[in-house]
Amino acid sequence: xxxxxxxxxxxxxxxxxxxxxxxxxxxxxxxxxxxxxxxxxxxxxxxxxxxxxxxxxxxxxxxxxxxxxxxxxxxxxxxxxxxxxxxxxxxxxxxxxxxxxxxxxxxxxxxxxxxxxxxxxxxxxxxxxxxxxxxxxxxxxxxxxxxxxxxxxxxxxxxxxxxxxxxxxxxxxxxxxxxxxxxxxxxxxxxxxxxxxxxxxxxxxxx
Length: 207
Hints:
alpha+beta; five-stranded antiparallel sheet; 29% strand; SH3 type barrels
């Protein structure tokens, strides 16, 4: 069966690559005006809709292909600098595997635990412990045998809120194995989780 063509508006995506937070694409629309047949753009997506930004168009495929290569190279350099900066903060940033954590099952409660993401759910440049370690703060997916899948989390590297599916979790990292670089964000957000749990218990007792 022929693979369905990916289209954004009237343009077909000929090729694209994700690097860091960016997706760079080379597109084509044979029905477009002659000087807009080929397009190089960044693709933004919210999970439902996609759009092209910073578009450059041309009637020359080679010109657009050259621009595509330049943008890929530029973003790759940015990500490499990010990796080097993170290495200064983290130190040993090797990928975590099953042997580094406690596996979970359908009975595991994840809220308040440091979870380890499966390497394969991350893009290649992020398959390192600095991007695998998250503090789970809640979500239906954090409960045992829950029908929901979403786990709300805090990234222990930069403190940003994020979310992942329960099936993306490799296991739980024991607290005594938490690296030094992650402890500040962990303590700050762990306290918030405990405070919320206490408030919930007080409300339940007052009923």
